[in-house]
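Attaching the record inline, Q. Sequence:
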Amino acid sequence: MTVPELEELVEAEPAVLAEFYSRSCPACDAQEPILGGVAREYEGVVAMVDPGEDFSALSEYGIRSTPSFVRFEEGEPAGTLADGVVGADRLLEFARTGAN
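Structure, as predicted:
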């Protein structure tokens, strides 16, 4: 999904967990199956965002590396997690509560 598509989704859904990734990122590849498991348990919407060349969006959401996660509540960013590959339990807790 692109950044503009994410912005539309965030406006339409009460809770969104977005992973910002890059196709050339090995850690992002490792994170993908973990994110899939979290998506099955998380009550909100999970999105994978490839910012491409949209560097303004990266700075807007405080993204400095990939993979990074941004949690949105009611259309607003409500937390960022940028620790490389994140385990399922920790990622689900972040998605639900914002706890890092």
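The chain has one domain: 3-97. Strands lie at 15-20, 45-49, 68-73, 76-81.

More tomorrow.
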